[in-house]
Design brief:
The structure is a homodimer of 399-residue chains. The first copy, chain A, is α/β, with parallel strands linked by helices. The first copy, chain A, is built from 15 helices and eight strands. In chain A, a hairpin with a 4-residue loop joins strand 6 and strand 7.
């Protein structure tokens, strides 16, 4: 196990009807003028925005509203928010929506007190100051409600980039699983895939002797394997939604990833897919992640065999553990297909002919390599994308 | 899953040589005059106190020292600390030791700004104000480094009582597994038992549909099953110590216990044992907890069968799940014996003749009942203690 720092100070308020208390929590954390930041019309139509504004009014906290955050949130909306917050002297941002909405709020939060362009923080500059954020979560997926991270897409060129800072961790997050019940099955499954990917990108590590975090990772994955199909079958299953929602937070506040090297290459490759095609992040991950696994599994067959046996219930093949490793990858892909995820380019709406463009956008150039479990070159990324392009649930994985 | 609030703002700094930075963290969290609170001479002899004071001196932070905290920490030491802090205008308490030391520091922390007797907080009064605390942990066991709780023993009558408050959560905790390497095997095993008990008292719940926290509980238990024997076999196994140390924190900051009813009756019963005999808390738990399981398992046989199969690797007996449930309890007790824990009264140094005294101290009276997984009367507590008195690793568990 490596040395680490772990700091997750967000206060989580979890359960039915918890959104009614959001005004009190804004007050507790010092907000006196609030930006309510939200996505599409569903938060308005469902009455959620009304409940949020009523809660703020009960606490006599003034607010302004800014809706229209898109999936794969754009820099243009962040600029709009920054201007609005400055004009209205906003000192607290309340995100009402899913990960896109929270990520956009985080972009605004670090942009408001900064004289330069907020995009600097998405190009490597460290955040030094940010407005406090609270969230009312409506989608279990991104984990942004308890994480340091934010991903924003620059509209010009559809460039997707991220930033990380403890200053961007929400002060509080209100998690009411019932708010996710109106989500269509496809988006629910995209969220479940994102949650599992957050765990898996921590699971595949070169750090040895990390039993506690291995087991915690497997705990979240096993929960998803049980609960995701239940919620696809019955979108109003509150209990399954509740288990998935807390799993989604745990998956990404890093409690399951401390003290070990991690590998975020699948996320990185996916960002180019959703950047180019504007597809759902989870859907892109369902296509990329098993392909990445096929490409890298020989690097540590026993780790893949561990996933296969502990998470997917495969029988260990003691004579040839690689067989078990491949069975685990197949089981993962079959699971994704079973909850309605695309698993190849055609199903995603991507084109194999675009692979050179995707690889170029990934930005390694001719000589560059990524870090991670297995270091990748541009050629490797192209190979992973070719595997992804032709994947199917039934195909045996190449030895 | 029940509604819940989860708030764990402690900053954890984990790994080798991390104690060298304690001065910087005291500064970060606003300490300008520090009480260094520690236990016996081992922290002095090992040079740890020197490293801590040197770190404070580098940051030019003045300090006073108060050692001598005993296992099962006493109210008398807390009073001494309160007086010293007031006299010296201390505004930050740094605990250097194990759970007893942290619990004593928490007692002092809430006592200093309070006009009345700090013991009020251990008799049900809510803490409203407390000095900030930091910890340098030397024993993986109590989880007090990331928890709201503190347990203090009133010397007069050896009464063991506890308190809970978010205000008592340490601001930071420095966890260097290497500092636990000097711990004798017996104390290491006591710590491991305490960690497992913290999980098990959350695991046995009447709340249904809690797959995520069930799986997280099992993750910690499985880690302990692997790592505890390794560290008993080789006290200098840093990696095993590291896994146990982080497991110990996770086990008790409530991340594995949110959203579900819990059962702390074994802890409560044990407090009377260590109160009366001044035995190690973990040793008392090793005697009480399997006996409690024997007494209650019929209340939910499938939950015990789940523990047996998922944690102890027992084969599920589908014709008679109670067989599996009992096998799991036996496996737990055998495991405790294998790491050198006492599992009956004789081994603990307790006397069956004292059971009426223990039951009376437990304080239910003739009519009272506890809450929990199974509600207990005084008679039930006596029965559990009688089972504990005669337990052995080989004996079949009564049907």
């Amino acid at each position: 196990m490596d040395n680490f720092q772990f700091y997750s100070p967000t206060e989580f308020i979890f359960g039915k009807e918890t959104e009614y208390s959001c005004g009190a929590y804004v007050k507790k954390y010092g907000g006196t003028k609030v930006l309510i930041h939200y996505g599409g019309g569903s938060a308005v139509r469902s009455g959620l925005i009304d409940r949020v504004t009523a809660s703020l009014e009960r606490e006599e906290i003034p607010y302004v509203l800014l809706g229209g955050v898109q999936p794969n949130p754009r820099d243009t909306k962040v600029y709009e928010g920054i201007e609005l917050c400055r004009r209205e002297n906003v000192d607290f941002i309340l995100s009402v929506g899913g990960g896109s909405c929270i990520d956009s709020a985080k972009g605004i939060a670090c942009g408001v007190p900064y004289e330069g362009d907020f995009w600097d923080f998405y190009c490597g500059k460290q955040v030094e100051k940010a407005l406090p954020i609270g969230t009312v979560l409506t989608i279990a997926a991104a984990g942004s409600e308890g994480s340091t991270g934010s991903v924003i897409t620059k509209e010009e060129g559809m460039l997707k980039r991220d930033t990380c800072s403890d200053l961007l961790r929400p002060r509080f997050s209100i998690l009411n699983p019932a708010l996710t019940e109106s989500l269509p099955a496809y988006q629910t499954a995209c969220g479940a895939t994102d949650i599992m990917a957050h765990v898996l990108e921590r699971y595949f590590t070169n750090t040895t002797e990390v039993e506690i975090t291995d087991r915690l990772c497997e705990a979240v994955l096993l929960t998803m394997v049980k609960e995701a199909p239940r919620v696809i079958a019955d979108p109003h299953n509150y209990q399954a939604r509740a288990n998935i929602m807390w799993a989604g937070t745990i998956a990404h506040n890093d409690v399951v990833g401390v003290g070990r090297s991690q590998d975020w290459n699948s996320h990185g490759i996916e960002h180019e897919l959703s950047g180019l095609y504007d597809c759902a992040h989870g859907a892109g991950l369902a296509v990329v992640m098993p392909a990445w696994m096929e490409f890298v599994y020989k690097h540590n067959i026993m780790r893949f065999a561990q996933m296969a046996t502990r998470v997917w219930g495969c029988e260990m093949n003691f004579e040839d553990p690689a067989v078990t490793a491949r069975e685990g990858i197949r089981a993962f892909r079959r699971f994704l297909a079973s909850i309605g995820m695309p698993i190849n380019f055609e199903q995603l709406g991507a084109k194999e002919a675009d692979i050179p463009v995707l690889v170029e956008k990934f930005g390694l150039g001719e000589e560059g390599r990524t870090g991670g479990f297995v270091s990748l070159s541009s050629e490797d990324v192209a190979e992973i994308l070719h595997i992804a392009a032709h994947a199917s649930a039934d195909k045996e994985i190449a030895e």
